């Protein structure tokens, strides 16, 4: 099945981009960090950057170099001059996403200084912030879609299987009420009335998930209504199988194909929603990095084109990749394809 999904060039590119994004988000502390990957400090080998990598960050405390860098961003250079650091290997981008530098305010991309995507109006490296922002985008995409899928399958499954008054009076009306509100504006309204201190990536996941389940519910409801008339369901009912057994053993496994496709499209939609909310200032709050709040800085500095171009490219490519992968999955899981 994987070969069939990746048979086209566009689906291959989308798949490898998503895999690369997952890789970058996990190894972000080793890609962009002002802490060294390896150095010899006072005659001892140190691996400061690795202490920020999961799961080491759960049980290893920051070492002396990390603590010094919190108060003095130039500690590595000063320690080299003093001879306390003899060897030092820094990450490809030797800047933290939270590190500000007055000398680097709004500078364009500079390969010599290793500011690959330039800096913002606070002197923070754009590349470092995009690398760490990819983690938030992935978390929002997957967790929000998981919440939406969980709710959608349960609500849509109940309406599709039981039908009757339960479906017409409760489930269908609930879906129609939710669909009557523009989802994005509903999310903005909920986020806007919350206190800023509660606006973080985890809050956004819940908000987006709780407002994006209607599409999955409609898919599930339609599939259940079609499948409950199948012979294998009738046979299970005649044999005395419970409704719970029929739903989880027969209906959900047979309805999973269109649901997976809808979930794949939903990940791209969730990333776009999070970026839009952060761009408008009601999403992930600075200094926490997010593609959306990095992109929003272009409103202050229209001449700093790099602040808008690079985050925009990342949002575009990620959403495009999930949509291309969803298209490929839809083609493979289409029953007509199995007849060819």
Structural notes for this entry:
Strands 2-1-3 form a three-stranded antiparallel β-sheet. The protein has 16 helices and three strands. Helix 7 packs antiparallel against helix 8 (164-179), helix 7 (126-162) packs antiparallel against helix 13 (243-280) and helix 11 (214-227) packs antiparallel against helix 13. By secondary structure, it is mostly helical. The chain is 64% helix and 4% strand.
Short description:
This protein has 340 residues and is mostly helical. It has 16 helices and three strands. It has a three-stranded antiparallel sheet.
Secondary-structure blueprint of this entry?
Blueprint (H helix, E strand, L loop, with lengths): L1 H4 L3 H18 L1 H4 L6 E4 L2 E3 L9 H4 L4 H8 L3 H8 L2 E5 L36 H37 L1 H16 L3 H10 L8 H11 L2 H14 L3 H8 L4 H38 L10 H5 L9 H29 L1 H4 L2
Antiparallel strand pairs: 1-2, 1-3
Helix pairs in contact: 2-7, 2-15, 7-8, 7-10, 7-11, 7-13, 9-10, 11-13, 12-13, 13-15
